[in-house]
Design goal:
With 375 residues, the protein is mainly alpha-helical. 63% of the residues lie in helices and 0% in strands. The chain has helices at 30-39, 42-46, 65-82, 87-96, 105-115, 124-135, 149-155, 161-167, 172-176, 182-205, 211-214, 218-230, 236-266, 271-275, 286-304, 307-329, 336-341, 347-360, 363-374. The radius of gyration is 21 Å and the shape is globular. 43% of the residues are buried. It binds magnesium ion (MG). Magnesium ion (MG) is lined by residues 68, 97-98, 191. Residues 68, 97-98, 191 line the site of magnesium ion.
Length: 375
């Protein structure tokens, strides 16, 4: 596999490695080991019961954060192979990118962030890193999953300057305004490609958007005309699937070609050249990116801020903020492990433990906990 890697791909031989040194794996690469550790983590299994856009119990066919993460990984791996990047690293970052998400999607995250306002705030990217660095306790020799530097670098997609300063090596790039490696850049954009497309599917299924509305979107319309002409008899559901499949293809091919052109211009000779390039190199062409953004705005308007979602948001705010307040008042009502960690005089540390506990909850667990503690 190493022989196929481009010079600008991540290589374990050039990596700062793990926070706690370990012997090399016998039959896997270091990044494959990271991916495997992520798959075996508790936080990964919980993604199946966490909201992506639609709340988990609203229907069995909607994406959850788990299926979303797998779709991100699928898109990112295809591109990684085409560009001769490190596929195992790309997969590891993609599968881990949402591990720090709270229950109830962005409504949950915003509420928890508001609760944590006086205690350093709550950022889900930062939380994903906390999960793999500290909160998973599965290994005898170290806390967390002890992942490779490049995997951690990729998971920490955004970070405030304040958090960056506390994070050491992996936070440095936010202070120096450098980019992460290409595998991390790729996982980031694959995230946006995956949700833009699967949310068209889920939004249509939920009856929140129609084919007529979608036809105002250039990415959709272009494929609509092709598919309609070739398959005039196709029923709507199958038409939508065929269009989405082609939309993903269009965007992914454009991403590969445009990134290749960027790499030919900049000619990075190593992952460090990528980091210091001063700009993101894994990107779509301006034209396709504009269409992609237009679809994103459309989905925002019709899905993410739809009335039904807003109703949900109000309920979510109550659940999350009640839980936070009650556990801050009485940390003994949390499970032993969290209660012990929270038995400190430092209010800020206590709040962080409460936030860790709430952030780890699945949607239905949060609702059940809310019923238990408010009963
Ligand atoms: Mg995501």
């Amino acid at each position: 596999m190493i022989g196929e890697l481009a010079p600008y791909a991540a290589r374990e031989s050039a990596s700062p490695g793990r926070r706690y040194p370990e012997p090399a794996p016998a039959y896997r690469s270091e990044y494959q080991r990271d991916r495997d550790r992520i798959i075996h983590s508790t936080a990964f299994r919980r993604l199946v019961y966490k909201t992506q856009v639609f709340v988990n119990h609203e229907g069995d066919l909607y994406r959850t954060r788990l299926t979303h993460s797998i779709e991100v990984s699928q898109v990112a791996r295809s591109v990684a192979t085409a560009l001769h990047l490190n596929e195992a690293l790309t997969e590891a970052i993609s599968l881990a990118h949402d591990l720090g998400h709270t229950p109830f999607g962005h409504a949950g995250q915003d509420t928890l962030n508001a609760c944590m306002r006086d205690y350093g705030g709550f950022e889900h990217n930062h939380q994903s890193l906390r999960v793999v660095d500290e909160l998973e306790t599965r290994y005898a020799d170290f806390p967390g999953l002890n992942l490779m530097f490049e995997t951690r670098e990729g998971i920490l997609k955004h970070c405030s300057a304040r958090n960056a300063r506390d994070l050491g090596d992996v936070g440095e790039r936010f202070l120096k305004r450098e980019q992460p490696g290409l595998e991390a850049q790729l996982a980031n954009i694959a995230d946006a490609i995956a949700y833009n497309n699967h949310d068209v599917d889920d939004g249509y299924r939920a009856g929140l958007i129609s084919v007529e509305q979608l036809r105002e979107q250039p990415l959709f319309e272009r494929q609509f005309l092709v598919v309609r002409e070739r398959y005039p008899e196709l029923e709507d559901r199958r038409l939508i699937y065929e269009i989405i499949r082609r939309m993903i293809g269009t965007v992914v091919n454009d991403l590969i070609e445009n990134t290749r052109a960027n790499l030919e211009t900049i000619k990075p000779g190593s992952i460090d050249d990528v980091r210091k390039a001063g700009r993101v190199l894994v990107e779509m062409s301006d034209e396709v990116f504009e269409q992609h953004r237009s679809l994103k705005r459309f989905l925002h308007k019709h899905l993410y801020s739809h009335e039904k979602k807003l109703e949900m948001t109000a309920r979510v705010q109550t659940v999350v903020s009640d839980l936070f307040e009650l556990f801050m008042q009485d940390t003994g009502r949390m499970p032993q492990q969290f209660a012990d960690a929270a038995s400190t005089q430092d209010e800020q540390d206590r709040a962080r433990v409460v936030a860790d506990y709430i952030a780890g909850m699945t949607d239905r667990y949060a609702i059940a906990e809310h019923e238990r503690v408010t009963a």
